Amino acid sequence: MEKLIEKAGILVEALPYIRAFYDKTIVIKYGGAAMVDAELKASFATDVTLLRYIGLRPVIVHGGGPQIGHMLKRLGIETRFVDGMRVTDEETMEVVEMVLGGGINAEIVSLIGRAGGRAVGLTGKDGELMRVRPLKSSSGEDLGRVGMPEVIDNSLITTMTQNGLIPVIAPIGLDADGHTYNVNADVAASSIAEAVCAEKLILLTDVEGVLDTSGKLQSHMTVEEARAAIADDSVKGGMIPKLECCIRGLEGGVTSTHIIDGRVSHALLLEIFTDGGVGTKLVRKN
Known about the structure:
By secondary structure, the chain is an alpha/beta fold. The chain has a single domain (24-283), classed as Carbamate kinase (3-Layer(aba) Sandwich). 42% of the residues lie in helices and 24% in strands. The strands form four sheets. Strands 5-8-2-1-11-13-14-12 form an eight-stranded mixed beta sheet, sandwiched between helices. A hairpin with a 2-residue loop joins strand 3 (81-82) and strand 4. Helix 2 (38-53) packs across helix 4 (90-114) and helix 6 (185-195) runs parallel beside helix 8 (239-251). It is globular, with a radius of gyration of 19 Å.
């Protein structure tokens, strides 16, 4: 009986959040261990399906860097990184499109279908959803087919979510001349979240969230605090671009952004529907 009462308590705790986020769009960047471990993949698909059934509008933007690297290695194609970005020539771009727009995207759609949801796979090329410009490195070096989103046409996404569908988007865009470009998944998710006026942008990572200098999880941050953490070197490495994506999303109108640990089973539900959450939530100001 105690276990049943505990379950009822969890539902009661979730109720105000379900009410607050009903019919709101949640953009989720899916990547890291959650895309590799079989149990975590199933957990993620179940979470997303549940979000849809209780009235939220999830939109998934997925990565796939390790899978791309593995395929390039199998094909004997050398990979070079500049500023953490994969230099992408035409041959590499063909592999990127095959891995992201084919294998990974299709698998996510299938997993959600098995969980009882209705998902549709897209790339940023479909309906010219994502128009990009070529991106150069910080030193001005040409990165090839690496793009930065300039214009997001949200009409296709909105139509799908209004009809109970879950868009699953591979971060591939087109430039003004119709050439295909690879886009960083965090950046693509942030741009899409802005375009659809998302209630939340959630980045799944392989760390707890943002940690302070003593290694303690910071469960709540403002834009000002996030900028200060970047400036004083409190955060390092790959967390910096994630924070910058969150800041851009907030400044573009997203209500809150979250960096959570995708290695935790049902991390999405725990972050959205519990008082404490499991990661770092960022807001414009207190």
